[in-house]
Amino acid sequence: MVDKPGGDVDGDSRIAQLERRTEGLTERIARLEEELAAARVDAPPRFTPPGARPSALAPERPDVRRPPAPLAPPRAARPSAPPSGTRAARPSRASLEDLVAGRVLAWAGGAAVFVGLVLLVAVAISRGWIGEGARTVIAGAFSLVLVAVGAWLQERRGPTDAAMAAAAAGIGGLFATSVVAVRLYDLVPVGAGLALALATGAAALALAVRWESRGMAALGIVGGLASPVLVGAPAGGGTTAILFVATLAASGVCVLRGWDWLGLAAFGVVTPQWL
Question: Residues 191, 231: contact at Cβ < 8 Å?
Answer without folding.
Answer: no
